[in-house]
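Entry 12.
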Amino acid sequence: RNLVLDRMLSAGNITQEERDAAAAEPITLNLASAVPVNGILAYPYFVDYVKSLLQEEFSTDMIFKGGLTVKTTIDPTLQSMAEEAAVGRMQAAGADNLQVGMVVLDPKTGYIKAMVGGKDYYADDSHVNHALGRRSPGSSFKTFTLAAAIKAGMNPNVVLNCASPLKVWGSEFQNYGNHNYGSRTLAQATAVSSNTGFVQVAEAIGNKAIIDVCSELGIDTKSEQANFQDVPALTLGTASITPLEMAEAYTAFANGGYHREAVARSSRATARPSTSMNSKTTRCSPPVKPKRSPTS
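Predicted 3D structure (C-alpha cells):
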C-alpha cells in the first residue's frame, strides 16, 4: 500500500498530507477461507462424487492438473436449502450422534440438483458421503412392491386383510404399533403403510417381480452389499439401498412411469473449453407404466 502511495505522490496525484493520512489508516484484510488440501471449497460431497465419476473416464493427471471443463447439474439455491433442511432437521431432533444423507433430483432429466452427504464434510478426515451409503429404506420400499403389483395386473381396489398380528407366508408380522387395520383395499393399505397387507401382496406376486422392478428403476440389486434376499420381509425394506438410488428410482413415479438415470454432469467433460458439447442424454424406459386390470 505504501509503495503505491509513494508512487502516487511522486506522480503528483496526491499531496504529502494525503499520502501520510492514507498511510496512517489501519489495514483491514478480508481474508478468504483457507483452501483445503483437496482444493474443494463449495459442495464438497457433490464435488467428490463428480471426481469419482471423472476418474472412470480420465487419468489422474488430466483431472487434477487442469485442462478439463466440467459442467455439473448442481443448483446452488436448492443445495443451500437441502443442507439447511437436512442438517436442521437432525439438530432439531437432537440427533447429535447420527448422520444424514439427502439427494434432490429433477424427475424430468435425472439431474442431481442437490446432494447432502453429511452434517459437516470437514468434521473429520474420512469424508464419508452418506448420500451414497447403503441403509435399509424401511417402508419407503413398499412403493416398489406397489409398482410391481400394478405392473403384474393387481387392481388397487383388491381387498387385503390388514389385521395385526397376522401370520403370512409362514411368518408372523405386525403393523407399526401393532395397529389392527382390518380389511383394506390395496390403495388404503398403502395409505396406512400396512406391513401385513404388503407382505400378502409380495407373496401373491413373488419377490422376483419386486426385485425386477427395483433393477429397472436403477437400483443395484446384484451387489452383495445390497442384500436383496428372497425373504417374506423384503417388501418391508430389508435390502440396503443408497439415498441416491432411492431418489433415482422415485423419479419414475413423478415422471409418468418413466425412469431417468441420475446425472451429475449436464454435459460431457472436455479438455478443450472452447468446444461446444451436447447435453448428456439419459436412458428413458417405462418399467412401471400401469397395466389395465380387471376389477377385483
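Annotation: The beta strands are 102-105, 112-116, 159-161, 166-168, 171-173, 183-185, 259-260, 284-285. Confidence is low (pLDDT under 50) at residues 273-285, 290-296.
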